[in-house]
Amino acid sequence: MFDSDCKSQNHIICSEDNECVCKKNYIKIGLSCRPLIGSFCKKNEDCFPENSVCVDHKCKCKEYFVPKSYERCEPTYFHSKCNSRDELCQEAQFFSCTNDGKCFCPPNHIVSNDKCLPLLNEHCVENEECLIDFSSCVNNQCQCRPEYAAQDNNLCLPTRLNYKCKFDEDCSKIHNSKCSEFKGCICRKNYYQLTETICSPSIGGPCASNMDCTVENSFCIKNSCKFLYKSCHLDEDCVNIKFSKCSSNNECICEPNYLASTDKTSCLPLIGGECELDEDCVTENSNCYSRKCQCKKYFVPNVIDGKNECERRLPCSNHIDCALTQNFLCSDDKVCACRKNHHEFNNKTFCTPIINEECSTDKDCRFDNFHCFNFTCQCKPNYFAVSDTQCEIEQSVVHCSDNIDCGDPWHAECSINNYCVCKSNNRLINKATCYPLLGGPCWKDDQCSLPNSVCIDYRCKCQSGFKAVATNLCIPAQ
């Protein structure tokens, strides 16, 4: 896709992921993109922030208002009337009474809760006085928190990857990064995280010299980082061959759900692998749907003779028809589906119990770092359950003292052991983000991370034309 493919609306461009998105410093409202503070405009009505106007074709805060962020203009005066002889302004902790009878704050202060409170680099006594996001009171002065850097007097921008952001512009202190859908700074496409503060070109990424290509044994050839050979000692050595890892033979090989290309320079997606076009998917009877290779209608994934294949799933009339497949029952839709509290495992045609469900041997508990203990599936020693299907080593789990420390309260909470855990019917997407499975709470479609699922009546459900056969799988309706 090109920018011209997105020309039906103003201020929309084609992103690196081939999606029509708003330009830098514009926000999507309905079907249009509206400018934030500092962006191009034609008339006052174009500007999104409340109390902003269009001046010299740029959105700016109105008189007596100052920007608190790209999207907010805050007042610098108090609405009460005053005169120069009374003490109303001083009593209300405002600076002075002007000739037109308004109580005004000192420079670099804004009104909040009928008080003048400071922007960055102004005097303060306690943290609550500092209104700028990610700022605090240090040595009686409002300053950005560690890992954030000041821009002007009204913004604290992250200086490290994975720290919080709202817009791509918030990540401008980290070259070649952007704000992800999970509202954290990440490296842009064709770049990878070299350190907490550096995004370096991946194999195939743009470069100007060999110095730009930081992956071992890679060089800048025709302005693109390329490998001369693919030896490795650790998985990290293969990070720039997308979807690969280091084998016991010290060679980069493709991860599960991917197949090496003929020239062994890339990994091609099998079922469950990421894709952009149907042609990307190499498994017969599969196509690309919601950016994942999936079996076509009336087909389901299975491993046959050691290969990922798509095979037909037969309908059923009673539970006996499903008896040959472990933990399957005949659903109300008359298709073999997982029993309650069992999940379709690894895109294969069998189901495995979630945490605390019955088992007889370790083989019954198939999720990573599970084992069978006292006849129920539990995390292995030194591991901790962060969702119904995930156990993480305790040292890597996010610590908390209250639910608010775990981010989104719809999907995560603070456990009695003071670890952030996903609520029921949710799974861990990254170290600090939980997204819902089928039946989990949601308020927008992109929170429903399972293929072929959407948000309906604030719950993740299979979209039209698909049916649920497990809490974590939707298949084409027969």
From TrEMBL:
SMART domains xrefs: EGF
Domain EGF-like, residue spans: 40-74, 81-117, 129-157, 274-311, 358-392, 433-475
PANTHER family: ECDYSONE-INDUCIBLE GENE E1, ISOFORM A, FI17111P1
Protein name stated in the entry: EGF-like domain-containing protein
Organism encoding this protein: Cotesia congregata
